[in-house]
Amino acid sequence: MRRFILNRTLLAVPTILGVVTLVFFLIHMVPGDPVALMLGDYATKQEITQMRHELNLDKPITDQYLLYMDNLFHGSIGMSLYYQKPVLTIVLHRFVYTFVLALFAMILALLIAIPLGVWSAYKQGTWVDKIIAGISILGISLPNFWIAVILILIFSIKLNLLPVAGAQSPFSILLPGLTLAIGMSAITIRMIRANMITALRHESFTANLAKGISMRRTLFVHALKATLIPVITLVGMQFGLLLSGAIITETVFSWPGMGRLLVESVMTRDYPLLSGTVLVIALVYVTVNLITDVLYYVVEPRMRKTL
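The chain above was modelled as a monomer; its predicted structure follows.
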């Protein structure tokens, strides 16, 4: 297991470096001058030239890249051009908000998806199954920004129960979390249902009932366990996407997470901040994929031979 984790980590290094390199050169190709945005319209050419020299932006792009990679290998991902703060400090501060939102959305989605997915499979072909299928398809089809607007209209404007935007109140997480959970749970319901149907047709399901094991325990322990591998894969991928920053949802609700930070760094042409944000996102994906593989190892012992 240790060798597997080490190998996966070593294989991830060139992937992360490739992503960071690609983003570094692409952001430098975007029109616009970050120094002009920082200093404003009334800055003189001398001030702009001096600032560009201080930030090493007057050097060739290859020299800027080598300087950035040198700082990266020495444990520094630079200073933000716009905020004038260490990139790592800014990214970690925003990542906390994104992590809390993603974790809340994932837990909420599983609380919705697991009982509905199991119930839908158990009631296969009935009106219950059709209603749940219709709800899940609707949840998959509706875009997040539309769901967000509808939730704001209902719970913030009409009922005046929850905050519209920001993260000042503990209740501020409810609307963006529910927005993300609806789409995530809809996909997970379909996955659980499909795999549960196969598990319920297996002879072990009938054998457990014949042994006197209750239907609830048979469904939610024995049959559900057989569906965990594909569900873990799906949830791991979705959780990784949420941790990278739900850009649209965070923008609609003004949630100060990684998604909004990514947009802000592009708008301000903040090269170090954008590169640092992408670096953290790449590390998050690698970590989530590694955790997913470890969960395979724990849940399904027969897969240990393949790791």
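Residues 87-122 form the longest helix (36 residues).
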